[in-house]
Amino acid sequence: MRTRSHRHAVPVITAAEPSQVDQLRSRQRRYLLMMGLRLLCLLTGAVAYRLHVVWLIPVCVVGMVALPWMAVMIANDRPPLKRSRFREVHVDAPVDRAIEAAPEGRVIDQ
């Protein structure tokens, strides 16, 4: 009688990229998180202005200006490619690929 361990094993694809839907969902979450941080900077800046906490206002302004730009850049970027042993190129020595000229005095006609 065959045991479960002798059945055909399901192949595991370790180098597979996440699906397009998963990548989109991940980028959307990061974008919403960064826009939430921008909203937090806006509210903190308003409270700091109201309480006359002058040193906190420039920090909030930088966050409100930089976060949208960073969020768009990150949301439009794809995840990095995984390193794979099949993608590596090994070059031992440079290969001379130039075609050698025919020896002098020898002419080849067709």
Short description:
By secondary structure, this protein is mainly alpha-helical.
Helix and strand element order: HH
Q: What is the number of helices?
A: 2
Helix/strand structural class: mainly alpha
Terminal residue distance: 72 Å
Describe the sheet with the most strands.
Answer: none
Overall, the morphology is elongated
Q: Return Rg in Å.
A: 30 Å
The low-confidence runs, each spanning 5 or more residues with pLDDT under 50, are: none
Amount of beta strand: under 5%
Number of strands: 0
Helix content: 40-55%
Mean pLDDT: 78
What can you see in these coordinates?
The structure is a single chain. By secondary structure, the protein is mainly α. Helices cover 47% and strands 0% of the residues. It has helices spanning 20-50, 56-76.
Salient structural properties:
single chain; 110 residues; mainly alpha; 47% helix; elongated
